[in-house]
Write the structure tokens for this entry.
Amino acid sequence: MNPLRSASTLLHYRPLFSIPHSSSSSSSFSTNNLTRSTMETYSKDNNEPKKDQQKETCDNNQSKKVSDDILPHILNIYGSRASPQDFEIYAPNASFEDPLMCAHGVKQIKSAFYSLSKVFKESKIVEYTLEENVLPNGTREILIDNKQYYKFMGRNIDMISLIKLYVENGKVIRHEDCWDKKPLWNTETSKVPLVGKLVEMTKRGSMFATHAMMGFGKDPTT
């Protein structure tokens, strides 16, 4: 979310989308006894979510709380209403990556999301389904299949996304935002290492520019 580049990219992006009532994402890993699907719809005249439906089955209350504790902060962060406390969900060395930038550490993640309000008059996650899995190494994987809404210079921009959160000891260690649910390009996913390296360098450059513009992760004054 480099402020200028992200606005330009989103304006030309505008994919057609359909948000299913259950997550279409699947994991090749085994899952815990936890399945959760939640759909919330926001009114454009009201920032408070209107819950359309919620289905939960859980045999482990402690497991259920992982996504319950993290999700409200994610909604605040994407809704341009984040407070410093919302970023406490991240581990100190957490990383964030989307098609435009790659952030390392909480301060860079703050810069990435604080910049949203500098560019867009409005931003929020308007609909989502949620799935939580337990990977073989014990890491929690939270998949948020979602629709995002942005308002830029009077224009409404809609985008679908798959947010992937990886959680250890109650803290997010990795946050990925896959636009149109497409895999991210980096050195690990690119079939051509040189291309992946160039993409990664571009993302880091974009992150550095945003980080500097946002005061290197400085929290806004109230």
Remarks:
- DSSP finds five helices and eight strands in the chain.
- The two ends are 23 Å apart (CA to CA).
- Residues 193-213 form the longest helix (21 residues).
